[in-house]
Amino acid sequence: MTPQKNTTLGEFIIENQSEFRYSSGELSRLINSIRLAAKVVNHEVNKAGLVDILGDAGDTNVQGEDQQKLDVYANNAFIKTLTNREIVCGIASEEEDDFITIKGRNEKNDNKYVVLIDPLDGSSNIDVNVSVGTIFSIYRRVTPEGTPVTIDDFLQPGNKQVAAGYIIYGTSTMIVYTTGHGVNGFTLNPAIGTYYLSHPNMRFPENGTIYSVNEGNYVHFPQGVKDYIKYCQSEEEDRPYTSRYIGSLVSDFHRNMIKGGIYIYPNTAKDPNGKLRLLYECNPMAFIAEQAGGKASNGFERILDIQPTELHQRTPFICGSLNMVQKAEAFMQKHKRS
Ligand code: AHG
Ligand code: MN
Ligand code: MN
Question: What proportion of the chain, given as a percentage, has pLDDT over 90?
């Protein structure tokens, strides 16, 4: 069924509930509560310039990065909403050292889904009024219902995701998500607090002209990535490429999916696994990319097939339009994996 453009997110969730493999209202309720938390965070992000909420919270997270106040706020808002609604059995967050166990109704541990989140992505952009986002990823637990969750419920390869999405707090606020049946984007009408389907069946153009990479790190990149960038910049055959880098994965990805492009965050000598987190950032974006006809890899393997071994694991990330990612992989595979 082709979704109608004026459908609200609430209507869309109900209409498409039967598509879920395990066909339960629970996943719908879960996406509904993410929608709610996103509204709360959106409200806070939009007033960030007005109130004393900018700047450091004075803490560092488990990965040694400064936490911004809005990181903390968004983390709490998502955890609180998901916990209160008793629909997940566990949450792992980029901002938490360990996963959180949620007991659910009557302390029974009988909920089926775990959620992994990057509550605020692109946080260095908050102070300068540039788009930030939230990324989420949902799995069905692998341990028996009725028992507390374990690390195994979170360390699943991305190909086991049942849903994933992001919220972009941009010039408009949007939720873009997939449950494995294509990708749809919904824009918030802030006047009435309702998300409307604005981008049905989103698709990465097979070819694109945009490459997004932090070229300030160029000298530290693997040779294959350097070669790919030089290929994009070459005057031969009037190559049409242009560079765009916001420094917020959600925003760079969103633009590239609409216009056609590639996002690259490679490993460097200093960061041998790159910067981005497999579970909170790369897997959900890779699921969305593939569902939109794009591709995501670490240069050598499909992101979604990587078996995670730790919660805060990082990976090099190349993601975007199919032909561009394939070209970048070809350059990388000419060299030994570093
Ligand atoms: P986060 O704000 O969740 O820590 O993520 C920031 C990530 C990603 O969104 C962005 O693309 C990348 O870090 C930018 O890193 P550089 O500043 O090193 O380019
Ligand atoms: Mn992030
Ligand atoms: Mn973050």
Answer: 74
- Pair 161, 250 in one domain: no
Pocket (CB within 6 angstroms of ligand 1): 94, 118, 121-123, 214, 247-249, 275
Nearest CA to ligand 1 atom 16: 247
Q: Is residue 140 part of a domain?
A: yes
User: Quick count: other Cβ atoms within 10 Å of Cβ 38?
Assistant: 28
Residues 45-67, mean pLDDT to the nearest whole number? 69
Residue with structure tokens 């990324």? 135
**Residues in contact with 13: Cβ distance below 8 Å, sequence separation at least 6, in sequence order:** 28, 31, 32
Question: Which residue, 171, 199, 227, sits at the end of a domain?
Answer: 199
17, 165: one domain: yes
pTM over 0.90: yes
Flag whether 204 is in a domain.
no
**Within a domain: residue 4?**
no
Residue 205: inside a domain, yes or no? Answer: no
Atom of ligand 1 nearest to the CA of 250: 9
Residues 224, 285, single domain; the answer is yes
Whole-number average pLDDT of the chain: 91
Q: How far is the CA of 201 from the centre of ligand 3 (A)?
A: 27
Neighbours of 58 (CB within 10 A): 9
- For 8, other C-beta atoms within 10 Å of its C-beta total 15
